[in-house]
Automatic annotation (TrEMBL):
<keyword id="KW-0479">Metal-binding</keyword>
<feature type="binding site">
    <location>
        <position position="7"/>
    </location>
    <ligand>
        <name>Zn(2+)</name>
    </ligand>
</feature>
<dbReference type="GO" id="GO:0008657">
    <property type="term" value="F:DNA topoisomerase type II (double strand cut, ATP-hydrolyzing) inhibitor activity"/>
</dbReference>
<dbReference type="GO" id="GO:0008270">
    <property type="term" value="F:zinc ion binding"/>
</dbReference>
<protein>
    <recommendedName>
        <fullName>DNA gyrase inhibitor YacG</fullName>
    </recommendedName>
</protein>
<comment type="subunit">
    <text>Interacts with GyrB.</text>
</comment>
<feature type="region of interest" description="Disordered">
    <location>
        <begin position="38"/>
        <end position="60"/>
    </location>
</feature>
<dbReference type="InterPro" id="IPR005584">
    <property type="entry name" value="DNA_gyrase_inhibitor_YacG"/>
</dbReference>
<dbReference type="GO" id="GO:0006355">
    <property type="term" value="P:regulation of DNA-templated transcription"/>
</dbReference>
<feature type="compositionally biased region" description="Basic and acidic residues">
    <location>
        <begin position="51"/>
        <end position="60"/>
    </location>
</feature>
<feature type="binding site">
    <location>
        <position position="22"/>
    </location>
    <ligand>
        <name>Zn(2+)</name>
    </ligand>
</feature>
<comment type="function">
    <text>Inhibits all the catalytic activities of DNA gyrase by preventing its interaction with DNA. Acts by binding directly to the C-terminal domain of GyrB, which probably disrupts DNA binding by the gyrase.</text>
</comment>
<comment type="similarity">
    <text>Belongs to the DNA gyrase inhibitor YacG family.</text>
</comment>
<feature type="binding site">
    <location>
        <position position="10"/>
    </location>
    <ligand>
        <name>Zn(2+)</name>
    </ligand>
</feature>
<dbReference type="InterPro" id="IPR013088">
    <property type="entry name" value="Znf_NHR/GATA"/>
</dbReference>
<keyword id="KW-0862">Zinc</keyword>
<feature type="binding site">
    <location>
        <position position="26"/>
    </location>
    <ligand>
        <name>Zn(2+)</name>
    </ligand>
</feature>
Length: 60
């Protein structure tokens, strides 16, 4: 059963060297999803997101 694993990113057969993904590329994609997902902290309403971040115009 474990040999029939598929990549959670694209669904291709998993490679042993890059489990649980089919390739390093998909591993990176999944990692990126994790990081981007962590930026969206569940809980406060979306409107408060603007209040939490004051307008910082850092003109360089
Ligand atoms: Zn994949």
């Amino acid at each position: 059963m474990s040999q029939n694993s598929t990549c959670p990113v694209c669904g291709a057969p998993t490679q042993a060297s890059t489990r649980p993904f089919c390739s390093q590329r998909c591993a990176d994609i999944d990692l990126g999803r994790w990081f981007s997902g962590q930026y969206r902290i569940p809980g406060p309403p979306a409107d408060e997101e603007n209040l939490e971040k004051p307008e910082i115009n850092d003109e360089r």
